[in-house]
Input
Amino acid sequence: MTQVQIKSPGSIFDWSFDWDADSVLSASETISTSSWAVSPTGEMTTSSPAIDNDTKQTSVMVTAGNDRTTYRLTNTIATSAGRTHERMITVRVAPVGL
Output
C-alpha cells in the first residue's frame, strides 16, 4: 500500500524508509546505493539523500511542489547481496490549513 503525506508548498519535508522494519534485508545485508525520484518532475525537488547502514534506513529532504498537485516519491535501493528494492509514497501539496 502506498503511503500518503501532505505538505505545504513552502515546507521542507524530511522522509525516510526503514528497510529493516519488515525484514526486507538479511542481518548481514547492507544498502549499497539509494536513489530518489519524483514524478511528475520539475516542481518538487529532493536533496541530501543519505544511507544509514547502522539502522538500515534511507532518507531524503523534499522541497517545493506546486499547490494542489500530487507527486510520487520513489526510493530505489541496491543491496550488498545484489538485490534491488523499491518503496514509494504519495505526497500531496496543499495550502496550510487544508
